[in-house]
Amino acid sequence: MIVFRYKSEKGGYSQIVKRPVADVWLKKGKGWVEFHPYIDSGADVILIPLSLGELLGFKVEGEKIDEIGGVRGAVPVIYKRWEIKIGSQTLPVLLAWALLEEVPPLLGRADVFDFYKITFLQKEGKIIFEKI
Amino acid sequence: MRKTKLSNYEYFLKTDTSSYKGKWIAIAENKVAAVRERADQAFKAAQKKYPKTNISLAKVPRETTLVLKIKVE
User: Fold this and answer.
1) Distance from CA of B66 to the nearest CA of A (A)
2) What residues have CB less than 8 Å from A58, skipping those under 6 apart?
3) Has the ipTM of the complex gone over 0.95?
């Protein structure tokens, strides 16, 4: 079982918003890069912004560009099969590499939500990941 | 008194990152080690300062980035 937490941040209207944050490692060459995406059960896939994908070594050339729809409109993406690590568990996942910088890094449902039973306990400030 | 060393994740959760809105931050050694427009720039700048330490990355959202928010009347 892995327990993640909420982070209090200033949202619009100067109010404090609590957002669920994960601790995820992305494969980079022979090693891993740690990053802290928001956990988003409304996102179909893991989403990473342009410069994070470039850090991992992703290239646009020769790749098929798709679009995903968000509340703010369409975002061009390239889908990648990649390895991530949550705790000590390595998972092969589908992730969407956004060709824009202005998107939040999101831990979406594809593959991840099939692997874990995920319980949001917002009042307690916890998100519990239990291996299915 | 000795300060307890937090993991990068714990440090990110506890730190007020509001002054870095829209930027990438790289965390190492209980510090915001670098702040840049891009993840790769933040990572490389932090790596230069802390070559032997684990570095983590986070993007601090702008207020308007996560749009599903409560509107206070």
Assistant:
1) 7
2) A78, A80, A97
3) no
